[in-house]
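Still learning. Any example?
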Amino acid sequence: MIVRKACIAMCFCLTLSSSLLAQTSQKRDNNKSCGEFVKIFYTWYVAIALKDNPVPASDFALKERPYAFSPELLRQLKENLRFKRGRARTS
């Protein structure tokens, strides 16, 4: 009976530890993926921002890569853009 309990406890510990290792690996992969996304986005964005464009790079990013922003952030950025355009007309 004691041996059986010890075996069950050991199996539980091994299962738990392998699950934790998988989560750590997933977190690392997720961090790496996020980092790669940010690097690619900013490489693209800086190239646009440094060009002499009639449209601000931020406006261009909202139009060309809306998927790069969360829905809430995209909504707020567009709202800010409408506000800026409204203020520019009244100035």
About this structure: The radius of gyration is 25 Å.
